[in-house]
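To assess whether the prediction recovers the assembly geometry, we first specified each molecular entity separately, as shown.
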Amino acid sequence: MKEMSDDELQQWLDGKPSIPGNVSPNDDAEAYRNLFEALDTEPDAGPSFNFAAKVTRKIETERKRNNELKLNIIAAAIFIAVISIGFGLFAVFAKVNITSIPYKWLLIIIPVIFIAIQYFDQQLIKSNIFKRR
Amino acid sequence: MFNEREVIIKVLNGDVRAFEALVKQYERLVFYVVHRLVKDEGAVEDICQEVFIKVHKGLARFNHQSKLSTWIARIAYLTAINYLRKYNRTQLNDYPDDIENYHFTTETPEHLLNKKETANYVEQLVMQLPEKYRTVLTLYHLNEFSCLEIEEITGMPEGTIKNYLFRARKLLKEKIQVYLKNELP
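The predicted structure of the complete assembly is given in tokenized form:
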């Protein structure tokens, strides 16, 4: 029987129909057969038994955190709006020039800083997922 | 029976249990891809989790043009590659182009005679191959993707994939021949 080349042997073991179904039992064929069996064998290592539960828990936590962030943004926006309206009404009714009111920018900057801290805190938590070794 | 379309619809409607079923269905696929690429055991499960979080976020964009398994495998492959680029640059660049002259450095076959496990020996050899060869072998043999699907997952041309498969298997065959000769009485 004609000996098969490496290419033909690999195709034969891959189950390609173009290759004849019989092969001479030589060293190469035996080694390839063993190799293919080994390559198709699932390794001992695998994900932990509660992996799926861990993932869903993480997704739930992230969703919760996103909701909290949204709430914080909404709260901050309402706060800024209320302060602005308050200042506006105060300026109109007390007939005060709005530019002369002290510390007015602080009331807007504080909620913005608060949102920024929340945002960067989230980014830090996300990047730590990869940094953990 | 796992119904892909039904599960996707449920997940998109916020069903957490459906997503858990999806994770269970594909966790081994993702694990094998990441495990074969990233040698850092401690990081593998974290990366797998990251993959499924990406799957969850991106599921609304999945357009059913490919199999869900192919789409998930692509996310797993790209996430693992990104990790290697970010934290383990050497794993990606340290390999010679001519794999025929590749030198394996782990246990010699003699040391493995006690184990009598060809699969374990091959696993150790595979883990020493360059990243692209490991990927192709894993996707083809363990995850049972076709060359066309591997092209879709990795972006490598089909010819290159076939070439990597052939060369890696030929090299491993030569190693296994020596191993079997030593093992058999």
